[in-house]
Amino acid sequence: MVNLAPAPTIVWFREDFRIADNMALLEAEKRGQPTLCIVILDDAHLPGAAARWWLHGAIRSLDETLRGMGGALHVFRGAARAVLAEIVRKTGAGAVFWNRRYDPAGREADTAIKADLRARGLTVRSFPGALLHEPWSVCTRSVAPYKIFTAFWRAACALPAPFPPHPAPERLVFAPPPPMPDSLITRHEQDGLLPRHPDWAGGLRDMWSPGEEEAGDQLSDFLRHDGAGYATARDFPGDEATSRLSPFLRFGHVSPAQVWHAATRKACPDKFLMELGWRDFAWSLLFFNPDLATRNLRPEFDAMPWRHDPGGLAAWQRGQTGYPLVDAGMRELWHTGWMHNRVRMVAASFLVKHLLIDWREGERWFADTLVDHDPASNPMNWQWNAGTGVDAAPYFRVMNPILQSRKFDPHGVYIRRWVPELAHLSDDAIHAPWESGATHPYPAPIVDHRAARERALAAWKMI
């Protein structure tokens, strides 16, 4: 019997959980065939624990949106190459579309899958959408990547502005799901992405609601209330003046182009737009340095005498270092899956320089606990802080967590929120509680600042 059913177009969602400004979905609509929207949970490409929690919410939110349009988001589990081949076989699909990813493992997998499907006669297309400019488009005249952000950003700004965001498809005709084996079909509550025993995600649920509509609301609220003062207020964690868009960008609920054009319409400060550029810079570094998370980009740091200090690492992870600003940040991270940008720098500097612990230990911890973790920004920022990467802060610049606390949280608003055992101390005493003489259950510093600084500088001079 001849199969007269139309050959559907598969749209494979990975890190682009939105329907607006989604080129893969828009081009599927233009093709004029029924669309099958899918996600494949491949254990080889799943993020850390906190980001997996977000991924679960992203899938549910997009599924609800598509169901409101008469379709659904069909979720499968297994090795993406094999699962996608089976879906194609069962549906007779004529095309597969996706939006590009730029991490080494994702690029390698996509290249192999594209070759497989094209060899079978399918139309396979990939599209940009995760960055303002794709990594290979911002290079030096010798087609080399930039190693200094200011030069990178100057070159990026000389390129044409990002295209205006595309609207959501006006009309989609959806294909029915394929008859797949039960072992490959994933139900939302059994997808293995949520923590079970124990369920530690209560703080994440209180703080975040993944989804495209929520991303739009977050962007609008930021531009309406905080955008104008962003350049200065962003450094003060007690003010909550940052955009908090990072997890929404990480999972593609909003595109960089959407953020860019919304911000420029509101005359948002250049500093905010530069943060989108810093994100692009990170992806450029990862694109040209696939081992960014494991190798010092400055090889002289291969000789750095890092300390093996499980106790110090655990105290840092738990927010029990005795330095209130550091501990407030680490507790915020544990509770919400996010940390204020200024405090991230102070906490990272403390691990690498006060404790002299390898930056890769911190990178791995953030990878598992950040809802906004991505494989480019996280290692680049750790290498920047450790002095081991390109355009890095010099290693001899050791942040003083007490001075940082007094400067950027002068009234202890942020510290009181996350270190409540110090809430009764005065604005002056809260930054160095061991000097106050007051009784409290807060731990003493696990290392003396001056001694730690001298130890870090001595280790640096050795290399």
Automatic annotation (TrEMBL):
CC cofactor note: Binds 1 FAD per subunit.
Pfam families: DNA_photolyase, FAD_binding_7
Binding site for FAD: Y230, T242, S243, R244, L245, S246, F272, D372, H373, D374
InterPro entries: Crypto/Photolyase_FAD-like_sf, Crypto/Photolyase_N_sf, Cryptochr/Photolyase_FAD-bd, Cryptochrome/DNA_photolyase_1, DNA_photolyase_1_CS_C, DNA_photolyase_N, Rossmann-like_a/b/a_fold
Recorded catalytic activity of this chain's protein: cyclobutadipyrimidine (in DNA) = 2 pyrimidine residues (in DNA)
Assigned EC number: 4.1.99.3
GO MF term list: deoxyribodipyrimidine photo-lyase activity; DNA binding; FAD binding
Domain (Photolyase/cryptochrome alpha/beta): residue spans on this chain: 7-132
Domain of life of the source: Bacteria
GO biological process terms, semicolon-separated: photoreactive repair; response to light stimulus
Site annotation Electron transfer via tryptophanyl radical: residues: W306, W359, W382
Needed cofactors: FAD; (6R)-5,10-methylene-5,6,7,8-tetrahydrofolate
Keywords of the record: Chromophore, FAD, Flavoprotein, Lyase
Family: Belongs to the DNA photolyase family.
Protein known as: Deoxyribodipyrimidine photo-lyase
Gene: phrB
